[in-house]
Amino acid sequence: MEKTFFRSEDGDVRFGNLTLLVIGSIFALLVAWGSWVVIGAEEVGVPVTLGEVGSEPSYGFTGKLPFVTRYVRFEKTTQRMSLEDQTYTKDLQPAKVKYTFTYKIVPERACELYRSAGVGYENKLIDPALDDALKGIFGKWTATELVANRNKVANQIEDRLKEELPKGFFCEISIKLDDISYSDAFEKGIEQKVLAEQEAQKSKNQTVRIEEEGRQKVIQAKAQADAAIAAAEGKAKAMDIEGAAIRRNSQYLELKKLDVQQKMAESAGHWTTVIMSGNQANTLLNVPSGK
Predict the structure, then answer these.
(1) Which terminus in the chain has less CB density within 10 A, N or C?
(2) For 23-55, what is each residue's pLDDT tens digit?
């Protein structure tokens, strides 16, 4: 038995309208969604409309033409590059250099930077400038000078980079030389030279110490001699004074004798010294002490 199905024209119209409504809603949502963009706080956005780079960078929430405008994002924070390179010193010593390069882009110049070099600006602009600056500055120093002047060399490379890099695109440029290594034979030669210099300095210090000790001994001997001379001069002066006293007073010598005898008698402990006065002023008697 054959079956016949009937379709309503009104139903087809309603279905078609619903489909169009759904499609239109989706399109409207896509348009709305594509009409704005949020650039992160640490980023700067470069607008590109149908391949044409805009003239002003964008920040934060910003509007755009849906489907035709896109934003290329650049980091505003410090960028760090850890690199390794081979070069030669002034005395033709091969050197392997490990270094760290840091920088920031200038946000206001992001559009020009993208127009000039695109997102691969490091390979196009920074790497060649780094290579030229590093080899150019290392070629002005001998290997041994580089060991003792690493910070000064790094500063010279920074100055050279500021000249080599395109003006206005980068700021806060800094380079740090993490390691400079040479051939094993040259490293051993440097080590031996350093040890020899240390031994020479040690010997020099020893010589200075011995000279200082000798100088101190001379000063001490001179001080002792000066003290002895001063003592002798004092004793001679005392003797001169005593001699003058004797010459002025003839009884002084006799009194000195009596003083000596008195001290000797008193030290014996068994006699008492009596000095007679008057006409017997020069008579000294020792009488028993009664002990």
Answers:
(1) N
(2) 766 665 655 555 668 898 899 999 999 889 998
Which sign, positive or negative, has the C-alpha torsion 91, 92, 95, 100? positive
- Write down the residue that tokens 């607008």 correspond to: 47
Q: CB of 44 within 8 A of CB of 58?
A: yes
Residue 112 belongs to what domain range? 79-182
- Report the alpha-carbon distance of residue 124 to residue 116 in Å, rounded: 10
What average pLDDT is seen over the chain?
A: 79
Whether 122 shows a pLDDT value over 70: the answer reads yes
* Angle of CA points 149, 155, 158, to nearest 5°: 140
In single-letter form, the type of residue at position 109 comes to R
> What SS3 class is residue 47?
strand
How many Å apart are CA 110 and CA 47, to the nearest integer? 10
Q: Do the domain assignments include residue 107?
A: yes
Query: Which pair of tokens denotes residue 87?
Result: 């070069």
Shared domain for 90 and 178, answered yes or no, is yes
Tell whether pTM > 0.85: no
Same-domain check for residues 91 and 139: yes
8 A C-beta contact, residue 45 and residue 37: yes
The answer to whether the CB of 56 falls within 8 A of the CB of 78 is: no
